[in-house]
Amino acid sequence: PKHFLRSCCLYFLLSRYKYEFCPFHNVTQHEQTFRWNAYSGILGIWHEWEIENNTFLGMWMREGDSCETKSRQTKVHLVCGKSNRLAYVSEPSTCVYSLTFETPLVCHPHSLLVYPTLTETLQRKWDEAEQLLYDELITVQGYRRILKEIFEEAGFLKVTEEKEVEKQNNKISLEFETAEKCNKEYKRLSKELKKLQDLLSQHGIAYKGDSAENTSVEHVNHKLATAVVT
């Protein structure tokens, strides 16, 4: 379902407001009035799917225009219908909106299943998690964590900023997984440091290295290698 209607927007009129839903883009609200300060704003930007029991339940549009102390957000429910249309819009709680999106694209019993939309690699990862759970080698919580990681990797769920930083740090740590790689990087950085020291000297700026400045390269490499192993 993540590939449908990317270039199509749907509209719904309710009282004096016009709602516009652009799948995988945003939801907007426009007040239909001739007043000079008529409201027009964003009720949510495409964020992620809501997934439960191997099924896409709906779309979350978050981080819309500010509303008191939070941002507006919208949950889009997908239901079977003869044509693509917005069937209902409501505001169940302050600044949290609910849209009902009817479409024939979800009428087939399997049209909203998550597993078939995954790559073979992620399907295999899911299969392995199922086996681990069956063999009681992981808990239900551990199983759900693995599924969440699978959905994040597939782009169905938004990865938090903290996780993005963690992924980058893991990527960097892999670059120095051997002493040889660590030594090579150390030598490169040493050359860079020498260039910077020479540049400072040319401008008459004194450089104060640490007390271990005269430590041999071999000794430093040994320390770095030890740190890598640790």
From TrEMBL:
Domain MRH: 7-109
GO cellular component, as recorded: Golgi apparatus
Domain DMAP1-binding positions: 114-217
MF (Gene Ontology): transferase activity
Annotated keywords: Disulfide bond, Signal, Transferase
InterPro entries linked to this entry: DMAP1-bd (IPR010506), Gtb1-like (IPR039794), Man6P_isomerase_rcpt-bd_dom_sf (IPR009011), MRH_dom (IPR044865), OS9-like_dom (IPR012913)
Top-level taxon in the UniProt lineage: Eukaryota
PANTHER family: N-ACETYLGLUCOSAMINE-1-PHOSPHOTRANSFERASE SUBUNIT GAMMA, N-LINKED OLIGOSACCHARIDE PROCESSING
Name of the protein in question: GNPTG phosphotransferase
Originating organism: Semnornis frantzii
Gene name linked to the record: Gnptg
